[in-house]
Amino acid sequence: MALLSGELTFIKRFQPVVRQSLCLDGGCNIEIYTCSNYIEMKTLGAFETICPDAEIAHTECWKLSTDVFEPDQFKAVSQL
Prior knowledge:
Layout: E1 2-5, E2 8-14, E3 30-34, E4 39-43, E5 60-65, H1 74-77
Antiparallel strand pairs: 1-2, 2-5, 3-4
């Protein structure tokens, strides 16, 4: 997922949920909210039940780049 804004590109990478049926929000694994003040980009993990003392991870990798792209050049973002 990437946000192209002015002179910067914000990239958020994550491992998507393999089975969309495990996602709560209609099978979606991302949510984006926009308003006049900010943009919120969320990634969602699978809805799972875990046992006490167990753990589960949902890892995001963020990158802020000065490389800028036009929206139709979205494939170039994956090279960063």
